[in-house]
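Sample pair:
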Amino acid sequence: MKIAFLIPDDRDELRRYELPSPLFGPAPDALLSGFAQLAESRPDCEVHVLSCSKASSPAPAKIYNDRIFYHQLPVSPLGYLKTLYSGCIRSIRTRLRSIRPDIVHGQGTERYCALAAVRSGFPNVLTIHGNMRSVAKVNRAKPFSFYWLAARLEAWTLPKTGGVIALSRYTQAKVKALTKRTWVIPNAVEERFFQLEPSSADSETQNPQLACLGTICHHKNQNWLIQALAPLQEQFGFALNLYGGALQGSPYTEEFHSLLERHRSWVRFHGHIPRSELPQVYARNSLILIPSLEDNCPMVVLEAMASGLPVIGSRIGGIPDLVLPEETGWLFESQNREDFQNVLRQALSSPVQLKERGENSRSVARAQFSPLKIAQRHLEVYKEVLSGSSP
């Protein structure tokens, strides 16, 4: 089977064209590594990855192994969002005609991938990484802003694809009425996270290290988190480690920096962390907090579980699909400060239980989110789509 993946190269988004190899993000990277393993035993499996770029950057012909091909497609800056990605769609369609894949897989509805997949002329499926319609609503997106446009493009593409791979039941419910078929397959997790040894959670002399990872913004809800934690800090002596970029000048970021200053004795802001350093971040902390207002299948939860860390997450979006109360972590009602504080007291009052749930998390992650297993499930979806497609 010949598969075409449409995946943005983040070097284009970050304008880091000098970097030596493509940056696809954690979820596509883990999935492609699974297909690389799969191709070793399935010589009939061939993968082509297509990414658009405004400027030239190193573009290896093959990535991962000799069965995964990389195509960098130059597109003028005018061919992106301002023209509804028309340049990207044309460039991808032209290259696909020479590749002639059996199926095209658009990764995400945030940018050009979903649009290009449904306009490709080949059987196609989409994966929704972020529910753009929900994100736009939570962020109260203004007309013609990025989120506002992305939400409308998402709604336009869903009825036109052969099916949607939803990362959670939450997303499946949101898209089911708009698309032909749906499948629930979570993201894969890179193998390196399964090898980590987390910070000891059962030491009575060690102050608990709590971590929250994500862009500093309204729907990730870090400002609420700091205020909810403050009344418990003196009792438990924990430190809160915050990781993620912050958009300078926004009212939310200004409030965030004000809270940092007020609670600087125990809140530490580390800024953006390169992905190469994430294993060390998980190894240094003993509990991950996810207070989000909107989330589909947060990679932070999957990576934490693979690293042997328990998670406290808000009961929204796809988080309840991943965090199992009484087994791998704790859930609380979103924005309910009292519920969150009660859950945190339970977690921090029993270091032994904290360690046990971390060990359970790793076992669940290995069984459900390994790259090879997730790649195999994708292959089953492609076969199902093609078996019902006209030649």
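Residues 244 and 272 are 4 Å apart (CA to CA).
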